[in-house]
Design a protein that fits this description.
Two copies of one chain form a homodimer. With 430 residues, chain A is an alpha/beta fold. In chain A, 35% of the residues lie in helices and 26% in strands. Chain A folds into three domains: 2-127, Rossmann fold, CATH 3.40.50; 138-299, Dihydrodipicolinate Reductase, domain 2 (2-Layer Sandwich); 344-426, ACT domain (Alpha-Beta Plaits), CATH 3.30.70. In chain A, helix 1 packs across helix 12, helix 5 (105-121) packs parallel to helix 10 (200-214) and helix 7 packs across helix 8 (176-185).
Chain lengths: 430, 430
């Protein structure tokens, strides 16, 4: 029986899930893994012993240094989130030779490079499965399961709130604001959902995944990030009729000398498996060489889903030998890779605008697109009404972001166009 | 730099893929993982050095004992497949204290229990990622990625040949025999495809997965196994019109005291992600507690896909410390679980038969079903022709296999029924 002394810092939603999990499955961990987890100290700024079941002899404290100074604690679990004092806690724990488990995506996205180097120098493990997709073993799959493969590109549905909202807008025809309200009622969105719906949460996770797949730490400011607040019900219905689905994707692609890293609403074929990932589910679809395309999906949010990733880290950490190398800590960086600016990136586009329903209108618009080198693959104008504007939807061929923006500015200035054009990028995933 | 001396036995499709992989990525393994893999000896009954590139100082031999007797070889990779002499090779290697990597599903399905115990007693690792779904890290996900979770049930598309055939029958309207021929032409099916299309290959993989998820070694003879040879194009078209897809699934479910383990064509909703897994792709969809539903999919066959799983095992094995525990070797068995007989298992059914197109026919058939306690959810009779038999499709409510068989025997004897009824089980996956 291997005994592991744990200090847990942060007794919020995930932290209390971890405590429950440790308590409930105590016998299971002994029987199956030959492991005895001892929660030696639990730290939270607002802790009351009577609130917590199954703590046994656990010490309670409000000072995280009580955990870090305790020489008997081998593993520190950091679940307070945010940059500070999480960064100081993780850094100090590693410096004191303790292994660290964290679910903190913001910390890993911003300071991962330094922390991985520190962990390696200290011969400690730094585990972070729950930082992306909660307990879905995305980190483990990339770092260990596909070890030996290199990666060409990946596409991730990595924010459950946005996927839930887009699913409700599609399946139950809700407006964006009604869908967001429902997500909040169901506990799938924070009372302040800004970081989810503006794409920043996805950008944090994308930065972590890009590091693991390509060996490049991409600064958050280098990730083009666009949320879902401007997606209208009309766009979802047009997409449906074109056999397309709108998903908020985190996308990264590697070229010879460059990588792309971006988060934005994306139109994909409804026949692609990612299109069927609905509700709060997360998914990652990645192209590994030589294995080929791999899809991993599951519930990417929630108390026990996140606790599951922490427990998996704990079991794995305790089962690895003392002289093990944690594969992701060993990543040889590819510093020569440059991040491409969004302006230079080529995609196909869906564009929609309201235009006067008169002969010659489409030729004017097609003319502007043509002068910017943008080919048109299809035009859809369903409604006809000679006295008012009607919606026009076009699917374009590949063009750079830059040319599309210039063309849209010109189109918007036409007197025959009565709304700001909507543009959504498309990706061909197979 | 950690140096690992390897003996590889079996230089067929997968074996030569592994040799290529080792050769091509030699620098990559050094830079990224700090590992140097030395292929010390390559064994095949029909080996010629001139056939093989990149072997350097590798010894060639036709006698596998040359590998097993070599004290410098730390890891034996067994890629000859089949039971013998694979079983003797793996057993001897473990007894001599060598780690073993194998892609041999038949061996693990039949002798896994004994081999895992032997590996544990010898403090050796026995790795088998490529035995299910080639390089898709299904084994790693279950044993390590979801460590701490328990499992309620899983559904696997675990034979690429069958999935390819069913996809071609659905998307390109091929007959079964034409689809099989195409699979053979493309190299996705063996010249003798019996083990694939009769479901036995899936049953081997199901046995391995049931062991890892439930801790129960299910004998192959206890797995109800039905292939896809009786699936007709008519059934696929009816399924499509009912928003259903036909997949050959390996299914296992755990109750309190029992488990189900079966392989058969299954109707599932087209909206479920498993329905969009097409062609040679494999997938597993499993319910983990407390994490929730998880789906993992990718290319489950092919030389480099299988080699990828072997290399992943090799990198992981070499990176783990000497005192590591391989989690799957530690599985505490659940010997009390009894395997349920197919007779007792309840599912919904799709049934189809040719019947005379006269008033009263449906009531006769419904009467027989009713007397066997089988409710009918829907009846479809598209064509009408008073002078000949027409196809009738019914979807039933839940019933035991036993009652369905009895009812179908009676229905078949009716003079108004002109064909042997087809019955396909249905599963509600969410």
């Amino acid at each position: 029986m291997t005994k592991v002394n744990i200090g847990l810092i942060g007794y919020g939603t995930v932290g209390s899930g971890v405590v429950q999990f440790l308590h409930k499955r105590e016998k299971y961990f002994r029987d199956k893994f030959n492991l005895e987890f001892v929660l030696r100290t639990l730290c939270d700024w607002n802790i009351h012993k009577k609130d917590i079941r199954g703590l046994g002899n656990t010490n309670l404290t409000k000072r995280f240094m009580d955990v870090l100074d305790d020489k008997n604690i081998e593993v520190v679990i950091e679940l307070i989130g945010g940059m500070h004092p999480a960064e100081e806690i993780v850094t100090t724990a590693l410096k004191k030779g303790k292994h660290v488990i964290t679910a903190n995506k913001e910390l890993i996205a911003n300071e991962g490079k330094r922390l991985f180097q520190l962990a390696k120098a200290q011969n400690c493990q730094l585990c972070f499965e729950s930082s992306v997709g909660a307990g879905i073993p995305i980190i483990k799959m990339i770092t260990e399961g596909l070890a030996g493969n290199t990666y060409g590109e990946f596409y991730g549905i990595i924010n459950g709130t946005c996927n839930f909202i887009l699913t409700e807008m599609t399946k139950n025809h809700l407006s964006f604001s009604k869908a967001l309200q429902l997500a909040q009622e169901k506990g799938f969105a924070e009372s302040n959902p800004t970081l989810d719906i503006n794409g920043m949460d996805s950008a944090h996770k994308l930065a972590i995944l890009a590091y693991l797949t390509f060996g490049k730490f991409v600064k958050l400011s280098d990730i083009y990030t666009e949320g879902i607040t401007h997606i209208s019900h009309d766009d979802i219905e047009y997409a449906e009729s074109l056999n397309l689905a709108i998903k908020l994707l985190g996308i990264a692609k590697r070229g010879e000398e460059t990588i792309e890293a971006r988060v934005h609403p994306t139109l994909i074929s409804k026949d692609h498996p990612l299109a069927s990932i609905s509700g709060i589910y997360n998914a990652i679809y990645l192209h590994a060489k030589p294995l080929g395309d791999v899809l991993l999906s599951g519930e990417g949010a929630g108390q026990m889903a996140a606790a599951s990733g922490v427990i998996s880290d704990l079991v794995n950490l305790a089962s690895r030998g003392k002289d093990s190398n944690l594969l992701c800590n060993l990543y040889s960086e590819a510093p020569h890779l440059k991040v491409r600016k969004i302006d230079q990136i080529k995609t196909k586009f869906y564009i929609r605008f309201m235009a006067v329903d008169k002969p010659g209108v489409l030729s004017k618009i097609a003319g502007i697109l043509g002068r910017h080198g943008i080919g048109i693959n299809s035009v859809n104008q369903r409604a006809h009404n000679p006295t008012s504007a009607v919606p026009v939807v076009m699917l374009t061929n590949y063009t750079t972001e830059k040319m599309m923006r210039l063309a849209l500015q010109k189109i918007q200035k036409l007197s025959i166009v009565k709304s700001k054009p909507v543009a959504i990028r498309m990706e061909k995933l197979w």
